Amino acid sequence: MTTKVLIRGGGDLASAVIQKLYRSGYKVVVSELETPRMIRRTVSFSNAIYESSYVVEGIEAVWINSVDEIEITQEQGKIPVLTLPESEIYDFFKPDVFVDATLSKKKVHYKKSYAKVVIGLGPNIRAGVDAHTVIETSRGHDLGRLIFSGFAKENTHVPGDIGGYTHERVLRAPCAGHMRCEKKIGDFVRVGEVVMTVGGVPVMAKLDGVIRGLIHESVKITEGLKIGDIDPRGNVQHCFTISDKGRNLAGGVLEAILIGLNSR
After folding, report:
1. Are 110 and 100 in contact (CB under 8 A)?
2. Which segments of the chain have a pLDDT < 50?
């Protein structure tokens, strides 16, 4: 009998987990918000919500409107993405494993009794209480480490260092308002170039590099919201493939599932 996994979230890091588990033979279903705010859309299965279907590294996800479509979607070799209330998805799918891959950093509202194996990524999820296992998401020596008791490291609010840049590579909304992109993911930009406008206010690149991520234009933009990401390494391929961090976390989730299922 194939193990069924419900994954909350379909952004870039969650999608690394989804890809790993799908390729490992698990039946995966994704629960997502109606208007997801992921930045790295080109490597996010949740982009299917905006595009109807979307392919990441050769694997296709499809946005479906009913739990009754889950089985046929999986039989077609595709990953179902749903924006229905998670409780409805849960009751129909009856997952063996639940993975909270949202990295929301907020207090959670589930316990480890939610499924046979419950796994959480990042801080504010208590291993041994909220989840059986928590995966460390902070870059550095402990990235991907499995935590069986207690919490992952607190969020530092400092973006990961890429090419010596942290805050400079992140684009944030200068105000609330409608966003209009002047560039697209994969485009090269120079310091001072306009990447998008928010409420008519230009948002300019603070460094030279390739645009690795842009939030979807339909998202309601609030002041200070992260809306884009520039990679100073300038490798366009990185915009369309899963990151090293994502693959690391995905390996941790797979290990946690195997430990959990074997111990129960």
Report:
1. yes
2. none
